[in-house]
Amino acid sequence: MPTRDTHGRSIDDADELLLDAMRTSDLDALDALIADELAFTLPDGTSIGKRDDLDSHRTGATRFERLTERSRSTIEHDEGATTVTAVDAVIHWNCDRIEASLTYTRSWRIIDGRWQVVSGSAAAS
């Protein structure tokens, strides 16, 4: 049986909520799903934190035109969970329109009663 946070969400529920928040640049949902200590590596090797991620959505520097999940694998472990989610995306990033197949690898922990991403990466797939 999957571990649920205090809101009754499984890790797969949380991953889907994160994808939905990314699709719509929902800052409140992103803020709730991303840990303050986030360390995330972008496909170009750049590392960003939570503030950078939220600011990019807030300013429109990052906007998803399309984000379609192809597959997801989930592994729960003592420290939390890891998700590997493959997507097809059309992203507007710093005025460029990018079509890409990406794989998001995310480490999650339950913090303050809810699943939150603490680290991860996005890579071309």
Structural commentary:
- By secondary structure, this protein is α+β, with helices and mostly antiparallel strands.
- The protein has a single domain, classed as Nuclear Transport Factor 2, Chain: A, CATH 3.10.450.
- The protein is built from three helices and six strands.
- The protein has a six-stranded mixed β-sheet.
- A hairpin with a 2-residue loop joins strand 5 and strand 6.
- Helix 1 runs antiparallel to helix 2.
- It is globular.
- The chain starts with 10 loop residues before the first helix and ends with a strand.
Any idea of the CATH topology? Nuclear Transport Factor 2, Chain: A
Helix and strand sequence: HHEEHEEEE
Largest sheet: 6 strands, mixed
**Percentage of residues in DSSP E strands:** over 45%
End-to-end distance: 30 Å
How many H/I helices?
3
Total number of strands: 6
Helix content: 10-25%
The rough form would be described as: globular
Regions with pLDDT < 50 over 5+ consecutive residues? none
CATH architectural group: Roll
What is the domain total for the residues? Answer: 1
